[in-house]
Write the structure tokens for this entry.
Amino acid sequence: MYKVITIAIREYRAMVATKAFLISLIMMPVLMLGSLWAVELLKSAGAIEDRKIAVLDPGKLYIDDLLAAASARNDQTRSLTEKKDGDEDQGLPQMASGEILIFDLVPLEESRRITDQMRADLSEQVRKGDLYAFVEMPASEDSAKRQPEDILFYGQDSSLSGTRSWLEQTLNEIIKVRRLLQANIDPVVVAEASQRIPVRAMGLLKRDASGNVIPAREENEMLKIFLPFGAMMFMFMVIFMSSQPMLESVLEEKSQRIAEVLLGSASPFQLMLGKLLGTVGGSMTVFCIYLAGVMVIAQRVPFLNDVPLSLIPWFIAFQILGVLFYAAIFMAVGASVNQLKEAQSMLMPVWMMMMCPMFVWLLILRSPNGGLAVGMSLFPPATPTTMVMRLATGVTVPVWQLALGMVLLAVATLAAVLLAGRIFRAGILWQGKTPKFSEIVRWAISG
């Protein structure tokens, strides 16, 4: 045990006492939350973008109403951006992407007869940047069916354009009002009757130790989305930061013949066990640092107080097993190859198993106790990330699923450590050609 502890301390220091470790600690929250910060930064910047749009309306069906709607929206945008300090912030009419836009609609008088040549000329102006897009209205409206033809929006990003969405919403509102007036129905009455009543998302009621009922609280929608995703990404990053150094450490010791010196004073089992314990210690250091940071931030950000504390012990348990599982595999791969590029191809299936919850995280988030979520959480390579994501949603996960997931992951971890130990013992002194996959399998089975 003295040798094991000595090796573990050495691996722990080699992991945490490096510039790369400190840089990783800083970069992890930037990578996880950088997109959110960028969106908020763009919103606070308040930059207004003018978008010039040509309108082809040969039948003069909607151009007047559309110009009036665009003018009203532009006036609202300008008045809110020019508000003085101390005025109440009512919120700018932004697109879903955070853009603040001014729509400059340009009706084309020569559009009574639209030709392909005219469309091609306008498309060229869009490519040059003289126009953002152009819109083609139908020549007439079928009064019998009261259903106009399709309205066409031409642009370089037409499928995802927020401008197209605004035009679609505005034009549909104009058409709806016209239909109501033609049917002798007051649009104001319809608007009042169609006023939506919000359905507030409430949590469940609880009882305290004395049996008194604790009222339900309204749930924070953003917290319900980003806390599970953040917990999953945090688990992934901790496992990555802990397992990747093991691969590089073993590969370096093997290529520089350091392993031969180490094996002169310690057995392969002692060497591997010490490395794994050092890796677990490093992962716990990462967890403690970020936990302390979250506790400090929670004093200033109220909604972080809603993070369930019951998540912490489960996170630690699944993190330890997950780090042991993947670190053992990485060490076995590092002992089997001679170059890093060979290891990368062998680790691709491992990374795919580890990342599979990220491909379906939204489906799991929508149904934390559904069949997909339960199946993924009982699949050992995906258990750590999937289970902590389910727990972070606040939904009650059945105890038998937690216990079964823990047992399956523990068994898989034990098997991975034992098989990796056999590969490590046979491959750490292997020199020359890279062993075939069949040889690695033979090492794992027979040792």
User: Anything to note?
Assistant: Residues 84-90 have pLDDT under 50 and may be disordered.
